[in-house]
Structures are given as C-alpha cells and as structure tokens.
C-alpha cells in the first residue's frame, strides 16, 4: 500500500477528484493549505499599497492505494492538475505499513 500526497492548485480539485474516481478510488482526504515552492509567492496591490504574499493557497490531497494502482493514480492526478504554469504542485508517494478500518476491523487492502 502507498500513500499518495498531492499538493495542487485549488481550482484543479474537482478535476483531480473526478479522475481518481474514474480509476476506482473511493476515498480521499482534502486539506486547504498554504505554502510556496520555487515561485516564492508574489506581490499584490491592495488599496494602493503593494505587499508580498509569501504563502499561496493550495490543496493537499491524501489518498491510500494498493500497490497496483499507484501509477494509475499518479498519472490521473498529473493529467488533471497540470496547467504547464509555475506552481502546478508536487506529488509524493510513501509506503504504508498497516491500515485498519476501525468500524469493521478489516486490515490492509481490505480496509481501503
């Protein structure tokens, strides 16, 4: 099992969710986050004053998948989230040692 963590632009969330659902994934966790990478934020003008916005709004998606679905899931996220512009985001894949569904006691792949 693998944990896929994707940091994407907020307006791409619904498209990513749709693509992941289309390949058979049933659940995900979504968090509104702020951060920056190479783009290092930007400047904005508000009421005539210019100020720096260091942390940009992003969406963090976390989904646990069986090993067989990792490549499909990553591909689905990239296909939906890519705009070709700076700040499209990142995807991290980590190993999961054990999963347990609290309600039923199902473990590992059965718990997904």
Specify Rg, calculated over alpha carbons: 17 Å
Largest sheet: 4 strands, antiparallel
Q: In percent, how much strand structure appears in the residues?
A: 35-45%
Topology as H/E string? Answer: EHEEEEHE
Uncertain residue segments: none
End-to-end CA span: 9 Å
Structure description:
The protein is built from two helices and six strands. The protein is of the alpha+beta class and 112 residues long. 20% of the residues lie in helices and 37% in strands. The longest helix is centred in the C-terminal third of the chain and has 12 residues, at 70-81.
In short:
With about 110 residues, the protein is of the alpha+beta class. The protein is about 20% helix and about 35% strand.
């Amino acid at each position: 099992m693998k944990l896929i963590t994707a940091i994407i632009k907020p307006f791409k969330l619904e498209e990513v969710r749709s693509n992941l659902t289309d390949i058979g994934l049933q659940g995900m966790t979504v968090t509104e986050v702020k951060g920056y990478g190479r783009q290092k934020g930007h400047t904005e003008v508000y009421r005539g004053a210019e100020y720096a916005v260091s942390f940009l709004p992003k969406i963090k998606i976390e989904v646990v998948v069986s090993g067989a679905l990792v490549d499909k899931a990553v591909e689905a996220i990239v296909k939906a989230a890519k705009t070709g512009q700076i700040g499209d985001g990142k995807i991290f894949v980590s190993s999961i040692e054990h999963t347990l569904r609290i309600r039923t006691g199902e473990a590992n792949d059965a718990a997904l």
